[in-house]
Design goal:
mainly alpha
């Protein structure tokens, strides 16, 4: 099986499980991308980039229903540019091993939240 076919199959499976568990896909995609050989920083960036088609499709569809406040979207989009720049600078300044450990803490936090919600249900 080629690496592309493996990546597509794993991406599909991660998407299904992310939808089933109600978690962000990046929680599953990033570890899969690291397992396929990407570095932590590249895996996180790729996961974030993969969100763009979903955002574009969702925005287009919701705008047809009249559910998009374009002024608020513009303000939020422009304001987020500073956050993106700061996030890139911080992620590049942190050693990759530390970045991987921080991501693991996020995954553990999501797992704890899922367990807590399941216990309350």
């Amino acid at each position: 099986m080629t690496i592309v076919a493996l990546a597509l199959a794993l991406g599909f499976a991660a998407g299904v499980f992310a939808g089933l568990f109600g978690v962000g896909g990046g929680i599953l995609f990033v570890p899969l991308l690291v397992a396929l050989g990407l570095g932590q920083l590249d895996a996180e960036a790729t996961s974030l980039l993969a969100i763009l088609p979903t955002v574009a499709a969702g925005t287009w569809r919701q705008s047809r229903y009249g559910n998009v406040d374009w002024r608020a979207a513009l303000v939020l989009g422009l304001a987020s540019l500073g956050g993106v720049g700061a996030g890139i600078a911080i992620a590049q300044a942190i050693p990759e091993d530390a970045l991987r450990r921080l991501f693991a803490l996020v995954v553990l936090g999501v797992a704890a939240q899922l367990a807590w919600r399941a216990a309350r249900a």
